[in-house]
Amino acid sequence: MSDEVSVPKFWTGDYYNEGSGKEGLFDKLKEECGVFGVYRHPEAASLSYYGLHALQHRGEESAGMCVSDGNEFHYHRGMGLVKEVFTKDLMATLTGDISIGHVRYSTSGDSKLTNAQPLVFKYRDGDLAVATNGNIVNAPEIRKELEQSGSIFQTTSDTEVIAHLIARSSKDLVEAAKDAFRRIVGGYAFLIMTNDRLLVASDPHGLRPLTMGKLGDAYIFASETCALETIGAELIRDIEPGELLILDENGLHEDRFEEQKHRKALCAMEYIYFARPDSDMNGSNQHAARKRMGSQMALESFVDADVVTGVPDSSISAAIGYAEQTGIPYELGMIKNKYTGRTFIQPSQELREQGVKMKLSAVRRVVEGKRVVMIDDSIVRGTTSRRIVNMLRDAGATEVHVRITSPPFKNPCFYGIDTPNRDELIASSRSVEEICREINADSLSFLSPEGLIASIKGNHQDEYKGGLCLACFDNDYPTTLNFKEGAKAGCGC
């Protein structure tokens, strides 16, 4: 094939999921990353390995871990999956009882090893390691200011900004960190480690999830509770918005860098799509919440059909809820192939749909001759929904009715989700009827914002919008978005 011909790829580089945060066969949203921390456990590295493995769905492009033995750091970062980055021999070198780990998609900063986290630095008081889940909205502005005053940046990641702010401060670590957090704007969950201390912080709105658990006398921190379950840790609580925890030789000290004056605004997409079904957030289990979304969807937009099926894996819970509410049988109408593994095949455009079928297949015996309700969690560009609808039709479905268990996704995210520019979001410029025709469905309905909030039923149900950020649906962003160099159309990828 001629070099001038542009061909699609399953993966775009030399390792599994390189560039997957940018494009792919499916236009699903990508979470930026997940974090995991351990304080004072002799097997900190091993616990972090299993914790990161449980959080692998939050970032499949790079993984990293930094461990302290009290005197020095031992760390490693690599591109690829957790099981590929950390070998048995390598794990033996990561000794110590304090650890922070990270899994990442390249939604902010380039897809390369220098941006893999945790980022590790030398500063006046010793070693410093930083890992974060989220996005700093005003990072470009702060970065420009720091560079003009002499700072030299080693990465293109937003996360490096916080390290420079801390390093340039004349205050002690805790006060320097507080000042830095007050300076930055965005959605974030930070783990900051020195040789003998661990700092844990959540943004003033709690946009990105972070939980605390205990394993014996050790403290464990994770983006999701499923990681705590994996290592047998007991869930203690969620980290509160604007909270700063300091763990040192004196134990755990609870502090704040921001007063509780901001609205709680946990990302609604965590409930809809990102988090694992076995995780809990704000007192609400994800599987149960998604079932309620499906049930509410049935109440709002019932359609008579023969079978209900969900797009695996994130929409299966909602499909079960829709089926239970309507009495229409739930069937496994689509199968996801979890073992495609690495591939460097570069198919021609004609074979692109075949590539989709490598990842997802319709079960002909289930859908053939049937009226199908297809449940999915969101529509981004519309290309994935169209492929799936056509796949079901090719398998013999007589009707395909699409039900989306979220409101129309109209606006980009600035807080750590890889979203396209606004003009690429199909719901930003097309009506529901137009989208329905675009994806070749017989009917299409979205869950209402009120139905979504009622379905989640977390501990913040009485708060503004149920304590959720719904900006991607309603354009009501919880933070200021004052971009001095022109308005952004999407995430700072």
UniProtKB/TrEMBL annotation:
Cited InterPro entries: GATase_2_dom (IPR017932), Ntn_hydrolases_N (IPR029055), PRTase-like (IPR029057), PRTase_dom (IPR000836), PurF (IPR005854), PurF_N (IPR035584)
Cofactor(s) named in the record: Mg(2+); [4Fe-4S] cluster
Glutamine amidotransferase type-2 domain segment(s): 33-250
Binding site for [4Fe-4S] cluster: C267, C413, C469, C472
A Pfam family reported for this protein in Swiss-Prot or TrEMBL: GATase_7
Segments crossing the lipid bilayer: none
Catalytic activity annotation: 5-phospho-beta-D-ribosylamine + L-glutamate + diphosphate = 5-phospho-alpha-D-ribose 1-diphosphate + L-glutamine + H2O
Assigned keywords, A-Z: 4Fe-4S, Glutamine amidotransferase, Glycosyltransferase, Iron, Iron-sulfur, Magnesium, Metal-binding, Purine biosynthesis, Transferase
Presence of the UniProt keyword 4Fe-4S in the record: yes
Active site, per annotation: C33
EC number: 2.4.2.14
Role this protein plays: Catalyzes the formation of phosphoribosylamine from phosphoribosylpyrophosphate (PRPP) and glutamine.
Similarity comment text for this entry: In the C-terminal section; belongs to the purine/pyrimidine phosphoribosyltransferase family.
Protein name per the record: Amidophosphoribosyltransferase
Source species of the chain: Paenibacillus polygoni
Organism lineage string: Bacteria, Bacillati, Bacillota, Bacilli, Bacillales
